[in-house]
Write a structure and sequence with these properties.
Elements (H helix, E strand, L loop, with lengths): L15 H7 L34 H5 L7 E6 L10 E6 L7 E7 L12 H6 L3 E6 L8 H17 L3 H4 L2 E11 L1 H12 L5 E5 L15 E6 L11 H7 L6 E6 L12 H15 L18 E6 L5
Parallel strand pairs: 3-4, 3-5, 5-6, 6-7, 7-8
Antiparallel strand pairs: 1-2, 2-4, 8-9
Helix pairs in contact: 4-6
Protein name: Poly(ethylene terephthalate) hydrolase
InterPro entries: AB_hydrolase_fold, FrsA_esterase, PET_hydrolase/cutinase-like
Family: Belongs to the AB hydrolase superfamily.
Length: about 300
Amino acid sequence: MQLSTPHPGALTKLTLTTLLIGGTLLPASPAQAADPYDSASLTQAAGPYDRGPNPTNAILEASRGPFATAQTSVSSVSVSGFGGGTIYYPTDTSQGTFGAIAISPGYTARWSSLSWLGPRIASHGFVVIGIETNSVYDQPASRGRQLLAALDYLVEDSTATVRSRIDGSRLAVAGHSMGGGGSLEAANSRPSLQAAVPLAPWHTTKSWSGVRVPTMIIGGESDSVASVTTHSEPFYQSIPSSSEKAYLELNNASHFFPQTTNTTMAKSMVSWLKRFVDDDVRYEPFLCPPPSGLAIEEYRHTCPSS
């Protein structure tokens, strides 16, 4: 197992109990009365950004997380630097502020192609903006700038209802295809981001040695548009091992796997965002030891060294 330099933001030491009960992504067997991770035996001290109940396989695999959400549209005429979009946010105001993530669709696509992700991620305690790009033909570099413009809009210019829910120091990006390439661009140009999740990313640039943002790349084994051998894998390999990173390859998945509900993708994506945007170590067992199962072709990682 490759280990990286510990990520800033102090990891607490995982207990043996946590590793044993939380490290598998496989469903509980019929002989088990409940998901063992439902127990109250977690020993990590609560972090300042922990939001929601202790995570379980059931919670992470459900179509919605523990937070009720609302959504609001953003018109392209009311913003600059990107083409508007849709914001999803938790309605709960009792647990403090939340991290925020901007997500870009791919080449020729609109946000509607990924819209299932908005409420799914927001319901785990995030403010999410799914953007429309200035043009559906925008290239990755432009999409990266638009993702950052969308984050700036959330923090500085969104409605008071949305803005009051956001911790502007805990921001992340994601995107599909050229939007995934855009998320690499954004992470490379703004190292203060807390996480990036490129989905079936496409980019002509293959080396991302400047990326310091914790990055999870999710690729599809059968992707014929952005083949993992020429895109996701070299992208992952080029990110320094001193940066937290993971590569999840979905078994027999095409380039368009993010455009329909995908439980394995969503579970890993939420876990990554919770771990690095919220510094919530309760989610670490869903990432390290590495997840496995029929839906996963391969998983590479620099498991955080506790």
